[in-house]
Amino acid sequence: MFNLEFIVNNIKTIKEKYNYELKKASNAAPKSFWETYSSFSNTKGGYIVLGVEEGKIENKILGVNNPEKIVSDLWNQLSNKNKVSTNSLTYDDIIIVEIEKDIPIIIVNVKEEPWNKKPVYINNDIRRTYIRTGDGDRLMKDDELTIIARNSHPNVDSLILDNFSIEDLDFVSITSFKEKVTVRYPNNGYENLNPEEFLQEIGIMRKNRSNDKINATRGALLFFGKYNSIREVYPSFHMDYFNRRGNNERWIYRVAADEPASVQMNIYNFYNIVSEKLNSLSYNEFKLDKDNIRKGNNQFSEAIREAFVNTLAHADYDLGSPSIKIEVFDGWMRFINPGTMLISIDEFVQGGYSKPRNEIIMKLFRLLGASERQGFGGPQIFKFAKSNDYRIPEIYTNLEFTELKLWHIDLVESYPELTNEERKVFECIVKASGPIAKREIQETLNLSEYKVRK
């Protein structure tokens, strides 16, 4: 059951936004109901309230006539594939409520659909697919529909590439990877296999039934490919690492996929080069504790590795922009990859469930030992922050990209622009076990009311 009490108690002041829509509906649900139903289903879900008109100060409670008939009509149309492509509402999701005497309204709780049921469209026309932006519904663009289709059927990196063979892959990368995996799995006989046999054995090169040749999968090309071969399939393929620490206007160190390098800049080599830089950072960031042990170093390294692997393994490489980007700043890092998360942020934080966009790439990282337990990277990242009293990581995701910010300083330190007095006030608020009164802050810090209020 959704939070009905909150909606009812605040019905006169709730405003239309990304998850609330108010609609007049005297004798039937308006046609725009279905546009909002589609947009909520394709975005983050929301509540449609029938019988209320939004007002500048207070909403107008207009009510609906014969609410039972309106609800019955809604269920009939929800069951009609010619009206809406998917229905996942239960009877608890449509509620009739009498706000004022003899003035009933209808509240509909529309949940976001899972990716395998998107896009949700109306009138048996996929071009009538809506998405929620701000407080309104809009038709999806063609490129957004293409993204939705890819998200609905992930693991495209397992598809075989016609005419791409072992010649399109980097021998040095494969040899290095094979040596590491052989050490981890000494009883599998990998040392007796040549590069192509090894890649077939681990399932990333396969026989192409259409031409009887051994061809590379998309994942194999991305992970081990020669840069120019990768760009043939993924013209916008790009990866960047920036060290932006200090007061430098630009950056003090950069690794870029399109710059001349001594190695082929595929995912494997980019991961190795950047991991070395990040590991060096994690070693130098922490001071020795009383036992001469670098406190938090292992947790920091694991959190960084999980964030880095997630960025590379969950990226939508078919998207032209934005590209993979790892940035290091004083006290924090930013990981950006193209494409949305295929699980919710709550599921990522809680752990136990994973839905990789690129199963081949994730499998290769697992073979390396870089991603041991699927579905537990998120909890590990957040555990690192909480156990060290650091600012909690922030995640933002939409159809086009996903961004993770990871701090290794506390919340107060993460705002360097604060004055000393502002820092003290902020620190006092953060460290309080609960709400703290302004007067208590004044007395604790020996500051005037003006300083605290400011």
Would you write up a description of this structure?
The chain is an alpha+beta fold. The chain folds into three domains: 4-152, Schlafen, AAA domain (Methyltransferase, Cobalt-precorrin-4 Transmethylase, Domain 2, 2-Layer Sandwich), CATH 3.30.950.30; 166-407, Heat Shock Protein 90 (2-Layer Sandwich); 420-453. It has 16 helices and 16 strands. The chain has helices at 4-9, 32-42, 67-78, 142-152, 171-184, 195-201, 218-224, 227-233, 267-285, 297-313, 345-350, 359-368, 377-387, 420-431, 438-445, 449-453, and strands at 20-23, 46-50, 52-53, 60-61, 94-100, 103-110, 130-133, 136-139, 205-208, 213-216, 239-243, 253-256, 324-329, 332-338, 394-397, 401-407. The strands form five sheets. It has a six-stranded mixed sheet, with helices on one face. Strand 9 and strand 10 form a beta hairpin. The longest helix is centred in the middle third of the chain and has 19 residues, at 267-285. The mean pLDDT is 88.
First-last Cα distance: 42 Å
What is the general shape? flat
Query: Roughly how much helix do the residues carry, as a percent range?
Result: 25-40%
CATH top level assignment of the largest domain: Alpha Beta
Strand content: 15-25%
Query: Reading side by side through the largest sheet, how are the strands ordered?
Result: 12-11-13-14-16-15
- Which regions have little confidence, pLDDT < 50, spanning 5+ residues? none
Computed structural class = alpha+beta
- Number of DSSP-assigned strands: 16
Largest sheet: 6 strands, mixed
CATH topology group of the largest domain:
Heat Shock Protein 90
Structural domain tally:
3
Q: Cα-atom Rg, whole angstroms?
A: 27 Å
Q: Mean pLDDT across all residues, rounded?
A: 88
Total helical elements: 16
CATH architecture classification of the largest domain: 2-Layer Sandwich
